[in-house]
Amino acid sequence: MVAAGENRPGGTAGSAVPVDTPGGPRPFVLLSVAASVDGYIDDTADDRLLLSNEADFDRVDELRAWSDAILVGAETVRRDNPRLLVKDDERRRARVAAGKPEFPRKVTVTARGDLDPAARFWHDGTAGQPPLVYTTESGARRLAERLTAPAQERLIPPAEQRLTVPAEIVALGAELDFGALLDDLAARGISRLMVEGGGRIHTAFLAGGLADEIHLALGPTLVGDPEAPRFLYPAAFPGGSTHRMSLLGVAQLGDMAVLRYRPQEARCPNPTTTTG
Ligand SMILES: NC(=O)c1ccc[n+]([C@@H]2O[C@H](COP(=O)([O-])OP(=O)(O)OC[C@H]3O[C@@H](n4cnc5c(N)ncnc54)[C@H](OP(=O)(O)O)[C@@H]3O)[C@@H](O)[C@H]2O)c1
C-alpha cells in the first residue's frame, strides 16, 4: 500500500499502471527499472542491491498484477534468483476474478542456455503455465540438457526424456530476434509485457524500438563502480542522442522519484540553445 500523501505515476489517481495501451499486433512493452542516481541497477557485492523503498516495491507489485507476462534476462535469473510473483493477495484475487491466471507468465531470454534447474524462476507461481525461454538453436539444446534428468538418466533417447522443471523452450534461430519474440508472445495471447531487466535486456528492447513505456525509479544512492550493471549500455538507439522522449509523468514515493517515458513518442521539440 502507498503511504498517504505520496504521489503515484499514471493518469488515474493512485494507480501506477499505464492508462493508454493502444492495442497492436504485438504486446504493449513496459520496461520497469530501479536505478541509482548515477544509473546503476546493482553493485558488485554478492547480495542484490535494493534500490527501491517499500512504497516502490508495492508500485512494482501493482505493475506485475497488471501484466500478462514478466520477462527478465538470464543473467538476472542467475544473479538475483527472483520469484517474480504478485505478492499482494487482493491483487491476485482480482486477477483470478477477471479470468486471468493468479500470476503473470514468466519469460526469460538466454543465448547460451545455461540456467540452473533449481532456480526459483521455474518453481514458484508456475502451476499451469510453465515459464517460457526464448533462446537460440544451440541454447535450446544446452538448456534442454540442463533441465532434463540427471546424467545417469540421459542414456534414454532425447525424444523420450522429460524436462525435470516446467518450461517451454522456444528456439528463434541462430540469433535472438526480440521482434520475433514479441510476435510469439502475441500468438500466445500475451498483450501486456513487463520487462524487469537487467540492463542488457532493457538495452535490446530500446535499441530495437520495441519498448512502449519506461518506468524509471531513481533511488537516492550513488554506486560509482564501473564494474556494476547499468540500466543501459551503449547502443544505436532510434533517433540518436537528439531524440527527446515524451515524459508522461513524475511521481514521488518517499525518497524515490518515478519517471514515466514513452520512448517512441517525441512530443516536445528540441530546446533552442541559449547562451550567456
Ligand atoms: N534494479 C533493477 O531494476 C534490476 C532489475 C533486474 C536486474 N537487475 C540487475 O541487473 C543485473 C543483470 O543485468 P545484466 O544486464 O547483466 O543481464 P540481463 O539483462 O539480466 O541478462 C543478460 C543475458 O540475457 C541474454 N541476452 C541478452 N541479450 C541477448 C540477445 N540479444 N540474444 C540472446 N541472449 C541475450 C544473455 O543470456 P546468456 O548469457 O544466458 O546467453 C545475457 O547474458 C543483475 O545484477 C541484477 O541484480 C536490476
TrEMBL record:
Protein's UniProt keywords contain Magnesium: no
SUPFAM superfamilies in the record: Dihydrofolate reductase-like (SSF53597)
Involved pathway(s): Cofactor biosynthesis; riboflavin biosynthesis
Keyword RNA-binding part of the UniProt annotation: no
Region: Disordered, residue numbers: 1-22
Protein name: Deaminase
InterPro entries noted in UniProt: DHFR-like_dom_sf (IPR024072), RibDG_C (IPR002734), Riboflavin_Biosynth_HTPR (IPR050765)
Ranges of residues in domain Bacterial bifunctional deaminase-reductase C-terminal: 27-255
GO biological process, one term: riboflavin biosynthetic process
Organism: Nocardia flavorosea
Keywords from the named record: NADP, Oxidoreductase
GO molecular function list: 5-amino-6-(5-phosphoribosylamino)uracil reductase activity
PANTHER family the record matches: 2,5-DIAMINO-6-RIBOSYLAMINO-4(3H)-PYRIMIDINONE 5'-PHOSPHATE REDUCTASE, DIHYDROFOLATE REDUCTASE FAMILY PROTEIN (AFU_ORTHOLOGUE AFUA_8G06820)
